[in-house]
Each structure stands twice: as C-alpha cells, then as structure tokens.
Amino acid sequence: MWYSAVAWIMTLTLSLLVTPLAAAAQSAGKVPRLGVLAPGSPPGEPGRGLDRLRQGLRDLGYVEGQTIALEVRWDEQHPERWPDLATADHVQLHVDILVAGTTAAALAAKQATSTIPIVIASSADPVGAGLVASLARPGGNITGLSAVEPDITGKRLELLKEAVPGLSRVALLLDAGDPHRHVRLHDHEAAARVLGVQLLPLEVRGPDEFAGAFQAAIQGDAQALIIQGSTLFGTHRARLAELALASRLPTMAQGSRYAHAGGLMNYGPNNGEGWYRAATYVHKILQGAKPADLPVEQPMKFELIINLKTAKALGMTMSPSLLLLADEVLQ
To answer: Would you state the pLDDT for residue 5?
Structure first.
C-alpha cells in the first residue's frame, strides 16, 4: 500500500515535469494561434529570425502544431504589403498574439488592431515611432524588443573611423519615408562633432534613387557611408552593397544582414536574439500578462561583423585590433 502511494506520487511528479509549460496557456483545449509578420521571403537568411522565434518557443515547452500554432506571413520584399497582411491574414483569422519583425510591420499591426496583443521582435525606436508610450510602461497592446538605436550611433561612427584612417567626411543614407529621420540625423550630427567628422546627409525615397545618392556621396568627397536602419534599406541591402563596392565606399550599417549581403561592417544588436526573446513575451501574455505592463526590453549585447572579402575588394587592410573586436569575420 505504501509502495503504491509512493509510486503514484513519483509518477504524478514526473508527469508534471514533462508537461510542456505551454499547456498552462491553453484553455478548454484551445491551441493558441500566433500571427507572425516576417520580413523577406522563405527560405533564406531572413528566415533565421523566424527560426530563433521557434527555438525560443520550443525552449519554453511549446510544440508547434500541438500546443501552439504559427500563422506566418512574409512581405516578399514589399513592405507596403504589411497593412493587408496584418488585417486580412491575421486580424480576420482571430490570432491570439501578433509578432512583428520590424517597426513597419508593428505600425501596420497597430493600425489593424487595438485589442490583439502585439510583440515587436525588433524596433530601432519604438517610442519615437509611436508604438509604445515609454520603454518602462508601454501602455496599449504593444510591447517587445527595442534596438536602442540612438545609444549606439556614436559607436558605429567610432568603429568606422578606426576602419578608415584619416576619415574626415562621411555620408549618411537616410530613408525619406522615415518620420523620425530628423531625430536620427541629429544623433549622427552630435556624434560626428565629437569625433571631428563632417557629415553629408543624403535622403532617398526608394531604390531607384540609390544610385544617385552614391553619386552625390562621391561628388561630396565622402570617404565612407553610414546606412541608417530602415526597412527600405534592409530589403535592398544587396543592391546597396553592390553600389558601395562600385563606388569604392566603405559602409557601416545596422544588423548582420548587411555584412552577409556584401556590406563592409555592421554594428548593432543581433536581430535573431530579438526574435528569440520575443518568445518570452508571447509566453507571458499567454499566461495572462498584459502588454501594457511588460517593459520593452533593450539588448544587452551588440555585435560587430566585418566582411573581410569586401574589405579586400575595396583595397582596405583592416587593423588587427578591429578584427579582434569583431564578433564575426566573414572571409
């Protein structure tokens, strides 16, 4: 009798340990549906963010298709599709939570719904973009990850100056469609003054203006180019890398996708980690937490990626000290 009781307790304990944490999020057998707005198109490099989200969910005990369902929609290199994807493909499907991979996707989701919780996987400035009231108290139905873009502007310029000895004039590529580009410009101007560098701002409205911007950079005697974080630029990063190489301009950008596309250098948060951390927000919300009460998380680590093949094509020799700082060197 005593042995049977012990065995029953042990069996019960073991069953509790192996039961997925996600089960607590379900009610009456309902499988939560997670809508995902992902940039790019499957398969391919941008899919790594989605892979990290899935890994984060697995690490929290979720089993896709059993304890959670994902409704993934890609913009197929056309960010203007976000409003339709958010409304028709997610809100009308009555998903429980929306995960937005970019600021533009999050803005489209915000316009589509004020009730469905929205988790941002990555946004350079969620407060400035009007997505949340503050990082500590987001308010509304949106929370997630911030890339704290203004805090690392100076570091990017500092690294670029180390890569290009004698750097005195730098072009800054800005997205004219970014309502906060003036704030970004101000941040870069402040950093440039501190480092004794002249800044040449260049605004573009679309990919058809890229070539003209690079020509203006050359005519303006720019020795390097900084690519501001933008969905437009991320979508056409390979084209920007081609133009930079043809123009003999070293580039510094945000996010590892630029270096992998042929850009010279990147410095910023790892976007894949933002997707991974987004799973934690999904879990908390499914457990009953409100987005308004979940502080927006800022990245703890920034990574430097250098494309050594591009450096060699530009005739550059990267300093050993800079290469030692790099988290990844692409050969």
So the answer is: 43
SS3 276: helix
Both tokens of residue 154? 């100076």
Angle of CA points 92, 96, 100, to nearest 5°: 85
Contact predicate 239/207, CB 8 Å: yes
Phi, psi of 77 (to 5 degrees): 65, 20
Residues 6+ apart with CB under 8 A from 268: 147, 149, 152, 156, 229, 254, 255, 302, 303
- Enumerate residues 6+ apart whose C-beta is below 8 A from 130: 107
The residues pairing with 200 across neighbouring beta strands, listed in sequence order, are: 171
Burial of 324 (0-12, 13-18, 19+ CB in 10 A): exposed
109-133, pLDDT tens digit by residue?
999 999 999 999 988 788 888 999 9
Phi then psi for residue 92, to 5 deg, are -75, -15
Contact 294, 281 (CB under 8 A): yes
Pairing of strands 302-307, 33-38: unpaired
Note whether 236 and 166 are within 8 A (CB). no
Residue 100 pairs in a beta bridge with: 37, 120
Both tokens of 95, joined, read: 């998903």
Inter-residue contact 123 to 147 (CB < 8 Å): yes
What is the length of the chain? 331
Residues paired with residue 145 on neighbouring β-strands, in sequence order: 297
pLDDT of residue 20: 42
**Amino acid, res. 301:** K
Q: Is 186 helix (H, G, I), strand (E, B) or coil?
A: helix
Domains of the chain: 2-147+271-300 (3.40.50.2300), 149-270+303-330 (3.40.50.2300)
**Long-range CB contacts for residues 85-93, cutoff 8 Å, separation at least 24:** 85/37, 86/35, 86/37, 86/111, 86/112, 86/113, 87/112, 89/35, 90/35, 90/37, 90/116, 91/116, 93/33, 93/35
Percent of the chain with pLDDT over 70: 88
Q: What is the maximal distance between C-alpha atoms in the chain?
A: 90
Q: How far apart are CA 148 and CA 154, in angstroms?
A: 12
